[in-house]
Amino acid sequence: xxxxxxxxxxxxxxxxxxxxxxxxxxxxxxxxxxxxxxxxxxxxxxxxxxxxxxxxxxxxxxxxxxxxxxxxxxxxxxxxxxxxxxxxxxxxxxxxxxxxxxxxxxxxxxxxxxxxxxxxxxxxxxxxxxxxxxxxxxxxxxxxxxxxxxxxxxxxxxxxxxxxxxxxxxxxxxxxxxxxxxxxxxxxxxxxxxxxxxxxxxxxxxxxxxxxxxxxxxxxxxxxxxxxxxxxxxxxxxxxxxxxxxxxxxxxxxxxxxxxxxxxxxxxxxxxxxxxxxxxxxxxxxxxxxxxxxxxxxxxxxxxxxxxxxxxxxxxxxxxxxxxxxxxxxxxxxxxxxxxxxxxxxxxxxxxxxxxxxxxxxxxxxxxxxxxxxxxxxxx
Length: 380
Ligand code: FES
Ligand SMILES: [Fe+2]
Hints:
Blueprint: H1 3-19, E1 29-32, H2 39-50, E2 55-59, E3 68-72, E4 79-83, E5 89-93, E6 107-109, E7 112-114, E8 121-123, E9 128-130, E10 149-150, E11 152-155, E12 158-161, H3 171-175, H4 178-183, E13 191-200, H5 204-209, H6 217-220, E14 229-239, E15 242-249, E16 269-275, E17 279-283, E18 288-295, E19 302-310, H7 317-349, E20 356-359, H8 364-377
The structure holds FE2/S2 (inorganic) cluster and fe (ii) ion (FE2).
FE2/S2 (inorganic) cluster (FES) is lined by residues 96, 98-101, 115, 117-120.
């Protein structure tokens, strides 16, 4: 966020604090409960939201060196992303060209990728380089049996892959006005710490909703993030279909005694960006965490990965303890508080018999997000 924008926002924050009222939009909004339980909507969301937009698979720091690779299994089709010896980043469908077995797993550094089934192997540019008992394949043109490529792009320290070989793929167009703001965080300088894989029995949109308001901090998080962040004081800014939500740390008071030229909002806030539809990136005072949220196999299920990034490599025991405590606090908040509550919401969806959920005047991010979903699936 640019400094002028930070100063303007800090002034709004102090103004709201002094008046004892959160920022509010004109009116409440409603969302049909069926949005979380309709099989038809679920099908359209997968087809029109997730299968058309660039997919975030990680940060550049995970793929810095030649041979660095990661596998993304979140969206039904496994994708392998590799940094080649020539420095190029490439993405492939992660399936062997002999008879289709899945090739690589997890992440790491490798020169070649060997298939577990019959041992065909591929190099870091996807070329077929090893073919055991080749006499059984006379005349087979190896150059036609390389891994199938997918468009991939690195922008602002993040790595995006096209959802399909033939999908339109333009990350700048996708991010729109959010791109220049994300660039300011210099995410390319961060270091990867760890990831957690999660699956819950709730619609993917309930997981996104979790990050959309601070109205629940006092009640749901009295002992985790509640003591750190202001209750029901958060600021919403749309960027096309995406949005930013700023949650305010209680330490913001320390800025009152400083000149505006020294005001820095970042250490005093958690800036949450929802990259529509399902990537939730949070710029914290000292680290960045990302929840990549995807639909599960059924309307009432979702999958996600939490990726945690830090400003310096954690190469001492005390650094590890520090970051482990950070990850544990984050995961305790979502795994014991937010997401179990989300599952309880999903439980009631099927039996709701219609009706709607209501978003208060201080919950505009939820209204915006669901409106964007309806627009994208053609249901607005
Ligand atoms: S399927 Fe991979 S080597 Fe046969
Ligand atoms: Fe929460």
